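Supplementary Note 3. Input sequence used for the single-chain structure prediction.
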Amino acid sequence: MLSRFATSIFALASTGCSAHPQIEEAWYTHSSSSNVVIHVEVDARDARYIKLNQLYFSIVLEECGTGATRFPMEPFVGGERASHFDFNTSGSVDFTAESPSWVISKYRVPCVALEGGAYTGVHLKSAQVVLQKR
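The predicted structure, written as discrete structure tokens, is reproduced below.
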């Protein structure tokens, strides 16, 4: 009961705020001939903030510098939807998304960002980070 009350107070105090998580690293690998897996690594502090405030977000693939040709994808952690908010935040968190290979091939210089928010009015928007191929 007390925990729920504290969470409600924090949510009300956060109304209208913005969060700017720092992406530590972003890369993609081929998972099959037709798909790629995109990895976005975020530090524990930012992942904890996302989890505690239940921030729904997308991994957004876009052209670096311009933000053009946006392609939002649902994030996962360890095979589970990030929106379940049941992920470990003791270290860096690797958010992943899967995309068809043809999508990434349309970008000259692909970047990713995290964008979303919560019902409380908190907005989430990270800076663009260049997506590296591994």
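Residues 5-16 have pLDDT under 50 and may be disordered. The chain has one domain: 2-133.
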